Amino acid sequence: MKKLKRITAVGLSVILAASLAACGGSDGKEDTKESGKAKGTTITFWNSFTGADGDMLVEMVDKFNKENKDGITVDMDISADFDSQLSTAFAAGEGPTMMLSSSAYRFTYGDYLQDVSDVFDKTDLDKADFIQSYLDYCSDGDSLYFVPFQIVGYYMYWNKDLFEAAGLDPDTPPATWNEWQEWAGKLTDESKNVYGSGISYDYAYQIAHIMQRFGGLAVTDDNGKWKANFAGNAGYEKFLNMYKAMADKGDNPVEADTDSMASAGQIGMTAGGPWVTAGLDTAGVNYGIGLIPQGDAGDMNSVEVIGFAITTAASDEEKEAAYKFIEWWNTENDDGSSPALEWSLTNGFPAYTYSVQDKDEYKENEKLSVMSSADPEAPTDFITDSNFPGINAVLTDVIPEMINAVAFGNASVDAALEKAQSSADKIVEDYNK
Amino acid sequence: MERVRKYWNKPSRSAYVFVAPSIILLILFSVIPLIMAFGLSFFDVPITMNTAKFIGWNNFVEAFHDSRFLNSLKVTAIFTGLEVPIQVLGSLIVAALISKNNKRNKFLRAVYFLPVICSATVIGIMWRMILHSNIGFITAAMQSMGLGKINFMNTPGLTIYVVSFISIWRSFGISAIIYVTAIQQVSPSLFEAAEMDGAGKIRQFIHITVPSIQPTFWYILMTRFAGALQIFDIIYVTTNGGPNYTTESTVSYIYSRAFSSNSSMGYASAMSVVLFIIIMFITVLMYHRMNKEE
Q1: Smallest Cα distance from B273 to chain A, Å
Q2: Which CATH architecture has domain A155-301+390-432?
């Protein structure tokens, strides 16, 4: 009788446990989460975070390796020569399980990346929590190739002390590019080596972020064909004329390294990524941060999305283990914090999830609040349509040639734009074939 | 086994065993990549090398129509023209002055050699900061002396000289030390005899030192030539080819075409082959001249 009771009790517990599992498993995630395939798996993780943020990444990965209950080990390799490392590995039929890179890498290494759109089915990550425009940036059709990790936008920084010295309101940055140019003149003080504007001729990303506010995207989709938009682009022409005028007048230095000058308190206004704040903070510069003034091209939130990608070198077990890491990165712990939140707060990069943006610590951070104040629904395309595979060629060849020609007086603005059009046409032609 | 041992134990054959490791490494890391680069130059190959389309001489034709490649050849020629004579002759003169083994010369040799052991990255960043147009120490010092504001790193026409100076400063020590070693091997009796005949230091240098160290001179000349034609690291960390591509050397351009996201391995290989032919041609000419003089 006792035996029967025990069997009945065990049987009931099994049924109860099974029914509880069934209640929680209505979303179909249970199979994978409980599959345990990832247990004890070691995955390789490559990236190029060689700076101070790399040290933090090492700490975070160590933390995951210690904390995770599945015995997953993430073996991270940070390389300054990430591109060469990746290309030679892929060429040899190898590669990491997971990597961190710009989502634009899908155009170069697309054949070696796995679709990760099932990450939201196979983990507890909520797709609705991710800002959709950033996910779109990492997608090609229905396929998602990157899970956002870091949003790199460009922002305006202004030196409040220099504003005050020039008789400008230190709390009011320029709202238009006309104001930028006009105020650059007021801020410039040759006797103190101070320049009002800090736009570098050797910083294609900075130039691109600014010029697209003047003249929109450099390459767009024209009824299924890519089209370059340099020649005759009134916005680009206006930007180049403004740059040239400021450089000729001495209000903008003809200098490649303007970030160091901003840190030295010799630049009134500049545009750059979140990393600029590190130099300004270290140097004790009294600065303000805001969104880059909009130009004639209208509202935009141009960004570059850095994300986690899983390569084709990863087995199913390794992919699942990588998902566990991505899930951990974006999951709150008991203290209400998460690696993603810590990363944003420490490194000053805006969050890509609403849940992190809603955190009090995040809202209280003035810089992050400003960075997140851009309209998330505004187009996030950066300089070209986000699906144009030749974006890197535009950034590394076309824009540098154009701005150099103007900066050093080799060509008129019109001629520089014509040349840029012809170079861009060649790139576009390759992808239109 | 015994037969194999006996076979290789003969002096004429054992030499091959000793050189085998070097030969294997040479084949693996120099000969095979070289042959592959030749092969790749006839293909359209992406960075991942997962596809290859034979395109014949197209990469070469494109290279000779590519203004950036032609400009990079010009930049490399200017750089070589500046670096090699200063390096080869300047370090010879300095070596002659510090060749005697006394405390002062030993200290100076160490000073000259110091940049050689520093990484190009450190040197590049250091000079970039020292010569910065606005916050550079030298720029500020010159400005305070009333010499005006010189934009060393961002002036087309000037920056190539600055980069050449940095490169010479960096590798000057190694050439000088090699010369010092060679000069110290010259028999002192030759100098004593010349002195007895009334020859001054300059005549001794021209008529004894220089002819005695000719093999070293040719060695430095050839290695510096080949090195200058392949200049990359200092440019990469100081100017990255700017301003306006006036310091973009051929290897810098090849690197950007091979490993940037806009990569084209076939095209980069074709440009490498062109550079290889130029270097080989010059080296063979110099080698021929050296043999003739000897």
Answers
A1: 20
A2: 3-Layer(aba) Sandwich (3.40)
